[in-house]
Amino acid sequence: MAAESKMKTKKVAIVGASGYSGEELVRLLLNHPHVELVAVTSRQNAGQTLAQVFPKFASHPKSKALRFTEPKAELLAKLADVVFLALPHGVAAEYAVPLLDAGCVIIDLSADFRLKHAEIYREFYAHDHPAPELLKKAVYGLPEIYRDEIKKSLLIAAPGCYPTSILLPVIPLLNAGLVKPTGIIADSLSGVSGAGRKAEADYLFCECNESVRPYGLPKHRHLSEIEEQLSLAARTTVTIQFTPHLIPVTRGILTTLYLAPEKHFATEAEMKTLNEKISACYVRAYGKEPFVRLLEGKALPDTKNVTGTNVIEIAWRLDPRTGRLIVISAEDNLVKGASGQAVQSLNILSGWPETAGLV
Amino acid sequence: MAAESKMKTKKVAIVGASGYSGEELVRLLLNHPHVELVAVTSRQNAGQTLAQVFPKFASHPKSKALRFTEPKAELLAKLADVVFLALPHGVAAEYAVPLLDAGCVIIDLSADFRLKHAEIYREFYAHDHPAPELLKKAVYGLPEIYRDEIKKSLLIAAPGCYPTSILLPVIPLLNAGLVKPTGIIADSLSGVSGAGRKAEADYLFCECNESVRPYGLPKHRHLSEIEEQLSLAARTTVTIQFTPHLIPVTRGILTTLYLAPEKHFATEAEMKTLNEKISACYVRAYGKEPFVRLLEGKALPDTKNVTGTNVIEIAWRLDPRTGRLIVISAEDNLVKGASGQAVQSLNILSGWPETAGLV
Amino acid sequence: MAAESKMKTKKVAIVGASGYSGEELVRLLLNHPHVELVAVTSRQNAGQTLAQVFPKFASHPKSKALRFTEPKAELLAKLADVVFLALPHGVAAEYAVPLLDAGCVIIDLSADFRLKHAEIYREFYAHDHPAPELLKKAVYGLPEIYRDEIKKSLLIAAPGCYPTSILLPVIPLLNAGLVKPTGIIADSLSGVSGAGRKAEADYLFCECNESVRPYGLPKHRHLSEIEEQLSLAARTTVTIQFTPHLIPVTRGILTTLYLAPEKHFATEAEMKTLNEKISACYVRAYGKEPFVRLLEGKALPDTKNVTGTNVIEIAWRLDPRTGRLIVISAEDNLVKGASGQAVQSLNILSGWPETAGLV
Amino acid sequence: MAAESKMKTKKVAIVGASGYSGEELVRLLLNHPHVELVAVTSRQNAGQTLAQVFPKFASHPKSKALRFTEPKAELLAKLADVVFLALPHGVAAEYAVPLLDAGCVIIDLSADFRLKHAEIYREFYAHDHPAPELLKKAVYGLPEIYRDEIKKSLLIAAPGCYPTSILLPVIPLLNAGLVKPTGIIADSLSGVSGAGRKAEADYLFCECNESVRPYGLPKHRHLSEIEEQLSLAARTTVTIQFTPHLIPVTRGILTTLYLAPEKHFATEAEMKTLNEKISACYVRAYGKEPFVRLLEGKALPDTKNVTGTNVIEIAWRLDPRTGRLIVISAEDNLVKGASGQAVQSLNILSGWPETAGLV
Fold this sequence. Notes:
The structure is a homotetramer.
Chain A: H1 2-6, E1 10-15, H2 20-30, E2 35-41, H3 50-53, E3 68-69, H4 73-79, E4 82-85, H5 92-101, E5 105-108, H6 118-125, E6 139-140, H7 143-152, E7 155-157, H8 161-175, E8 185-190, H9 205-208, E9 213-214, H10 223-234, E10 241-246, E11 253-259, H11 268-286, E12 292-294, E13 312-319, E14 324-331, H12 335-350
Parallel strand pairs in A: 1-2, 1-4, 2-3, 4-5, 5-7, 6-7, 8-10, 12-13
Antiparallel strand pairs in A: 8-11, 9-10, 11-14, 13-14
Helix pairs in contact in A: 2-12, 7-12, 8-10
């Protein structure tokens, strides 16, 4: 307690706080023990208080004092130690450059700094990278994989929601050489909040309710960061199959992964051995992680068990009939898949307990 | 069968066929035994086939031949005997005037011709009535109440979804003098399709899912037609309390009505007598109606029992503790509350079986 | 901080922890800063850990150590200072009697101790009260109204979910004589969790999804406590009209209340004056309450703004057309309407900050 | 019309008419132009009318005359020409044997007669087959594949809902040798009605709403019929990976299939050629099928476009990055996946238009 109370509070701003990720950042940062939320910006809501824009935060003492402002880098630089960018790709970089120059730490939730190569960015995002010189400075903000790098970084690129649900289950297996880097399939189901608070007919209640549909086939933008990270883990170029689907829930991503074990298992004994290796691999990777829940026994992931939390659930099954390994993960796309994970990075780079404000 | 096969088919057009009511009209009219759907209009979808805009109709033989066009009155007048207008209020009248002049029958789903008085229209719709001279010619298209007038009319104003759910249960009771015309309360719950296919943030999946909320308090536009019709039934000016709520279903309106019986009931015998009078009143009014279902025994209305049909369910309870009569109705807002009822009027004025294309 | 750290932790048990209210108590008490959760009971889950029964709590350090046990009063009495009963009515009293005798504080979420009169209990619950001698000792656990009594009580009867949504908005108005105690109507919409985790066909997903329906008309059990409490506030016998409806959300109650102001308002000036009186009345009653949110301006309650919190939202509108006052409230039926409010009472009687573990 | 009116009406009974498939059969058969529904059975509802058990059918003239009876084979044999069995596996065979002996045609919706080999049945259903001698007589009731056999059969085994969604897209490709019979993955998402009207906690609204979860991994019972049928199409033993998931919709199955083309495609020209071959293959197989909708252009399947209809939507994409073929199908699990398809078989074996009662 003594140690905690000595922790220096940081002043934090959120640029683009009126979307779903931004709103979730507001929720988490308003209640974070070591954070003072000093600014929230939104073009459309400038001038309004937090309480007016988000009635659900109206009981918080700060909600009537804090007003949305226009996003102006020079102003934010004066107010904040850390700036979260919850903006569309392409736009985020515009703010990152001057804010970094002014000495702020940037935690960016867009795709702008997730990739190592500007040409891959152009291939997947269909425009030139707005600040390619920063790509080298950025750290991919997946705490369970890049904790040490996050500690020292000034520019964190928080991973996408789908990538998080795929990378956390697959990276340890590739690292350990337990599965082949080829033929990986990720079949993902996402809640509608993943589409953002855009007033588009496709995301109207009546279009999503009693509906399930794939979209973005076969080359979704998130493939770029997924494959880059998997390639790093496998130390070889990895190309995966990824199919996102929209399902009628507000929050949650469930990903079912189809993987080929490196080692063939034919007998029950071989299957048992492989199962133990996978289990050991996951326990080694995540056994002490506060936000990764390895399911045991007959339990399988269910988005309703992680909604509103920063936890990702992971379970797996070997199928002796097909020789495949099935791994399933569940996360809240707005928390572990976006804002919660971003706050986790903030905790790490600030030297705070990693779970601060997240439980 | 012989009689039916002699029935003359009518050529029908739908103006504004890309909204939810328009889409429902397409569904009903494509499968109507005496209708040839000759034109569908939509500014935004002009040039596309029915199958392209509404994949769910793509198995219908006509869906690939019929293309959306720009809405042009002179063209429609040449093609169609009957024109359905599924347009916003204010806009519908623009089409009604020339089409009526050209000899078409108009069935209008907007609010433009529902009221008798242009000044009431202005009070509730905040602009001058675009064609006040037509108000006298229009018939309020509530078939169970105005069947005879509908038979002879060239301009039908299909009632609003909320009004239908209120008027059908209340009018017979007022007609029979069983309830007081004062103090009526209508508490209504509507599915999100009632808001139309508008790309507004309020109707996004994530804003409606896991949400219930009232809106438009305390003076919703539909009050104008509700009160006008109730006043006619009661032969005195009726003012009611009406609270609409938005609930997370695609289709359905459930209305709970609080009414004061004219006759006080204190003993069990008085209650039994009153119950029998109400029952007799409803059976007299609706016992032979194909689309009104009077619930018996312990059954209570449930929107899922009427969804996709032109049926309205009605049940009632006397409460000896409060002396009140509670009446509950359930309907599909897009069918009995809009397009189905409009087709019912088409059947009546065409001399076809009233249920044609509706079961 | 110093004061807080000196606060004595209490040992708390939950009897009937496998239902929805019980699960919500587990969630709140696991994370309560001054509570040690020492026992959870459930006949059907006895022997299993918290983590096994509720995977979503599996990341909590206690979830693997704490096992469900059979509910045995003598054992609980040894372990716990405070026992929450989340049991059906009739059963709760069985545990309350021996546990009170053994010196435990009881916070009961059932209906067993909410009424002052055993004969009213029998009328509404259809069996004799199991421990009528305790009725006098029990305090109705509505903190905003009975805070002082709760401080001194050993037996708290946490109010029902519907009653909370009705009493908090109406009591101040009756206390202040602003509305008539006659003719009150409460039209309530509840999420399905209100029915409990009962495996009954009526509450299956396919029966509730895309469905809205009233039920329990016209004499719901909750009327007994609602009318008793309103009568106390009005100092006269109050009989109300109450219609519950089931809507397809997991959590949330929205109640729309129809009230008659004591004072007639005809002119705009009279309406303004009355509006100010109501506003002043509510601010006096709840202006400093941490869990009552009085909505201002055009905002109206929405269950999604209170879900997962202990907050009740209240808004009102005067309708000059009908002379009525409409008051609307929204709460989470499992939090403010059940477990959260029960924890609020625990905080009060323990001398802890009233918001401990609730924000 | 003349031809149609000469069509002999058949007397039809439904055994097990109170589940979701049974209810859907009732809906379809009540409105079928050539069917007289003469009996519906249900142990739990015996004695009640159709209108009482299913309020939504109460407007149908027959709904008050037709009463549920106990299921008694001798009685049914006297009443009906055709008997639909909507019973659990193991139980269906008990009725099939005596009814076939009595000369009835049987259309069975259970799994009892879908497999060719009793030992496979025992492996997947964990009990001995109750009437193995009938397996040879049964025809797998997938009309698009076995139309000729259905015409001549007295015992139709209507396929399972998941199998239909997998077999229709895959069989033509295997038949044509366009995809490899190895490595097939079927990732399926099902609405909750697939679980039947069982009062189990897992299927309560609150457990399914805002939830997505896989289940039955890795060896779901439906694999037996899927693999048997695929093996027939491929003329070699096929083993597939199949992962069912439960999603919060009432109706609908969406299946995403991952297939390996027999022919490698590297250049754009090769991809174009392969695409044309697949297109030609599907058009050949289904171009004239009234209930298979091959999607063109950018359209992708969406369950809301097939809900309530007997249509299955199919779309495909070649992925040049992975060399895979992705095929997606959408159907209503209760219609094309169960009762609608069963009625389609009835139409075929009766010599009626295949779409009778289904559009």
